Amino acid sequence: MSSSSRPPAQGRSASALPPEPVDVLTVTEHLRSRGKLDDVGGAAAVDALAGAVPAAGNARRYAQIVRDHALMRRLLTTTYEIQAGVHGTVILELTIGEDGAVSNVRVLRSIPLLDAAAVDAARKWRYTPTLLNGRAVSIILTATVPFE
Predict the structure, then answer these.
(1) By C-alpha distance, which of 140, 141, 86, 93 is closest to 114?
(2) CB 123, CB 74: distance < 8 Å
(3) Strand duo 88-96 + 102-109: pairing
(4) DSSP bridge partners of 106
(5) Residue 19 has pLDDT above 70, yes or no
(6) pLDDT at 17
(7) Is the pLDDT of residue 99 over 90?
């Protein structure tokens, strides 16, 4: 529990409390001093719980794992849709930025099981920038994404 979410001690305001470290030792001692350590399964249970909590230092790696799993779920969903014989054409409206990158995608004609795959694909497309009087400009175009 961080010091900002801890209730103030009797007779003191929350801002008067010094920040306290939170680790296995401090949590174990806190529970022991309040007679609650045995209620949670003892020091071994606190230690096991701490080992199961992700460390903030690994946040980037955990985020990568979550992204990888999300990608795998999208690929599996698309595979199941193809196996199920879902087919047709999704029509998209794309905004192409001055650099040729797709900056916005809007579904104009939807096939619900295929829309996400069409939008994901379109966001990866790159176009040659459109020039008007020698200057790159943003454009809006319609794209069809067939699924056979």
Answers:
(1) 86
(2) no
(3) antiparallel
(4) 93
(5) no
(6) 54
(7) yes
Considering only the top CATH level, what class is 87-148?
Answer: alpha beta
Tokens of residue 20, six digits:
């306290």
Cβ neighbours of residue 42 under 8 Å, at least 6 residues apart? none
Buried b (16+ CB within 10 A) or exposed e, 24-52: eeebbeebeeeeebeeeeebeebeeeeee
Copy the structure tokens of residue 91: 């029509």
User: What predicted TM-score, i.e. pTM, was given to this entire model?
Assistant: 0.47
Best-predicted range by mean pLDDT (24-33, 55-64, 124-133)? 124-133
Alpha helices in 10-144 (DSSP H): 24-33, 43-52, 59-83, 112-124
Phi first, then psi: what are they for 38, rounded to 5°? -70, -30
